[in-house]
Design a protein that fits this description.
alpha+beta; 407 residues; Beta-Lactamase; Heat Shock Protein 90; 11 helices; elongated; 13 strands
Length: 407
């Protein structure tokens, strides 16, 4: 068993600053960024030529090397002597001490020799070993910089940063999966309504064509003219469905939020009519914002579907677009107002929390995803509700121009 009596790291000057390493890791957005930064900055802090990163594999009990090209070349056993020692002690392991090497396995010694490793730094959190770093240098007299206390703090912060990044990425993945599920749910919900809407104008077109076939002397001009609105209705429904299903890059451009609100309201009106609901859209003026039109359309579609689910038959849903004041700057405001039962105050405080829902079949991510999409586009979303009266959801996004429009 590896001993703990000779783990001291000889101090050298100047001692690296732990906040510097922490700041580099805090700015990483992806796992690959984090591991690349960890590899680079740990080597710099330790004063060695290079560092090799080994991380725990999710599907096998190994610590696998993470190379720059993503290939897996070497791996330590997670229950090997070195991994067990690092898990228990959570501190830098100085390999210059021959006493340590006596307790290592042949496989571990082979990997350490192949990388010219002089010390090992664990990545741990709450006694769990997530990975390790080999501090590598070809010089025979290399010594790691920093005191034992500094390396213990570096290990603690690195583990905490890694866990925080992994947690955030898990939430983002769950949100993306739920967004895709919502799009499929919306497409499925609206498919029957769109089929119904398309079938009606097709019946009218068929009737006109049959009349012309039976009586070629009939005035074709008037009949053909009456076909155009029916064709437009079909085109509008198909265009709306394609817009919903089309994969997007989430590129942000200047879009008219009032036009998006009007189009989305028209698109879902067929579904609302089948539920004996009516949707009234009001747009005062163009509202140009710098955002992803696809993401804003998805937000409004989700809000309108929610309004349809909560509204009683023969009631109205209003979609109002107007110019508003957002923290002193001109902004676009879109309100979705329903006449449903309302939301209790204790639930109102939590409706945007991920996984919180009062529906028996809900995921609890719908409004959380909406808030994430609105925030990503530089806006805000708020909710107000009165029991027995209804609910208002409001989207506010700054205009692309910071100046107030001239009246």
């Amino acid at each position: 068993m590896l001993r703990t009596r000779r783990h001291c790291v000889r101090e050298s000057t100047p001692e690296p600053h732990i906040d510097w390493l922490d700041a580099q890791l805090a700015g990483c957005e992806t796992e690959s960024e984090f591991l690349s930064a960890l590899r680079l900055y740990t080597a710099t802090m330790a004063g060695c030529q290079r560092a090799a990163v080994f991380m725990k594999s999710p599907d096998i009990d190994e610590l696998r090397e993470v190379s720059a090209d993503g290939a897996v070349r070497l791996a330590f056993e997670l229950d090997g002597p070195m991994a067990r020692w690092l898990r228990v002690n959570a501190q830098l392991l100085d390999l210059r001490d021959a006493t340590f090497r006596e307790d290592l396995s042949d496989a571990e010694l082979h990997i350490l020799a192949s990388r010219s490793a002089k010390a090992v730094v664990p990545v741990t959190l709450n006694s769990e070993l997530s990975g390790l770093l080999l501090l590598c240098d070809d010089s025979a007299d290399w010594k790691p910089r920093g005191s034992p206390a500094l390396w213990r703090e570096a290990i603690r912060r690195t583990g905490w940063r890694w866990d925080k990044l992994k947690s955030r990425l898990r939430v983002e993945v769950a949100a993306r999966i739920d967004l895709q599920a919502q799009q499929l749910r919306a497409a499925g919900t609206l498919a029957s309504s769109i089929a119904h809407e398309v079938r009606n104008p097709l019946a009218a077109i068929k009737s006109i064509v049959q009349l012309l076939d039976e009586d070629p002397s009939a005035a074709p001009g008037d009949m053909l003219h009456s076909l155009l609105p029916e064709i437009d209705r079909i085109d509008q429904q198909i265009s709306g469905l394609l817009q919903l299903a089309r994969p997007g890059t989430q590129a942000q451009t200047e879009v008219d939020l009032s036009a998006i609100a009007l189009e989305t309201a028209q698109f879902i009106s067929a579904h609302a009519r089948r539920s004996q609901l009516s949707i009234h859209a009001k747009c005062d003026c163009p509202l140009l914002v710098y955002a992803s039109g696809r993401e804003l359309r998805q937000v409004l579609l989700n809000l309108l579907l929610n309004a349809c689910e909560t509204s009683p038959p023969r009631s109205e849903i209003h979609v109002n677009s107007r110019l508003g004041d957002i923290h002193g700057l001109p902004g676009a405001v879109v309100e979705v107002i329903d006449k449903g039962a309302g939301i209790p105050p204790e639930d109102l405080l939590r409706v945007f929390e991920p996984f919180y829902t009062t529906k028996s079949s809900g995921t609890g991510l719908g409004l959380a995803v909406c808030r994430d999409l609105v925030t990503r586009n530089g806006g805000e979303i708020s909710i107000s509700s009165v029991l027995g009266t209804g609910t208002t959801l409001s989207i506010q996004i700054p205009l692309s121009s910071p100046k107030w429009p001239q009246s």
